[in-house]
Amino acid sequence: MRILVTGSAGFIGFHMARRLLREGHNIVGVDGITPYYDRKLKLHRHAILRQSPRFRGHEALLEDFPALSAIYGSGFDAVYHFAAQAGVRYSLENPRAYIDANLMGTFNLLELMRQSRPAHALLASTSSVYGANSQIPFRETDRADHPLTLYAASKKAAEEMSHAYSHLFNIPITVLRFFTVYGPFGRPDMALFKFAAALFDDRPLDIYNHGNMKRDFTYIDDLVEAAFLLLCRTPEAPEARGAPLARDSLSPVAPWRVVNIGNETPLGLLEFVAALEAAAGRKAKYNFLDMQQGDVPVTFADSWLLRALTGFAPATPVKEGVKCFIAWYRGYFGV
Fold first, then answer.
1. 36 given a catalytic annotation
2. What is the pLDDT averaged over residues 232-259?
3. Is the pTM of this model over 0.70?
4. Is 112 part of any domain?
């Protein structure tokens, strides 16, 4: 298949593109390579992908419609849309970046898919859309109407736009809600990367809400496996469906659904740090802080639908995943 991967120099997009290349697909990647974090890491990811003759990478912003249109051309068999301005906390500092990338970028891609429809488009979203929802574990059929940050609001808006386009133009779309993804080549603004940097620099780790938080940490290889298996689980239009799965999130009017991808095992923040200390062979110093604005105390995925569709669910233990991350971190930074 000929597949477009947006955000191909990003953490998740890079791993997804690499998996698709191993499966024999031809990949076109596009990434803005923005300076939100170290461009060298992004360029390094793209350089690895370019080692394959079946990868073509482009540096372009999705909000630049002429540039994206030239890359999209006559279309693709499938699309993985992972490009976005990420980060809950950065959305408090630079909200416009989220409107430009997450709304305008997604709108531009949807317009191109309207003109030349892929067999399946898979769009990255986030557990942050559950916002103030207090019912756990989070299910795809739960209401997600009260986002707590502009980041979450922009991703929920992108979900809603994709549903409208799916309904109006019969584009099969699966929205993937990710839960706290970590692993090698991760983003430097995420907790594990920041903790590791502080640990190896002998600096205190900033522990928010005094450690009273739980996250459904999901290892990158598990997420990629789930997203790959969902590629062939295309949502069907209502008139073509058989008996629906229990608890399916399929739209009543469009070939569109939402699927959680999470480990279903929320872990306390200090337990996560303990796994890091064990993997690094170092003892951390702690700087306990109050809860940050926009944070939630717990995330917890219900991955029943993913298992029902693919027979797979993330299961990598945090100790194993963190150990793999630390091995990569030591090699990449020479510590």
1. no
2. 95
3. yes
4. yes
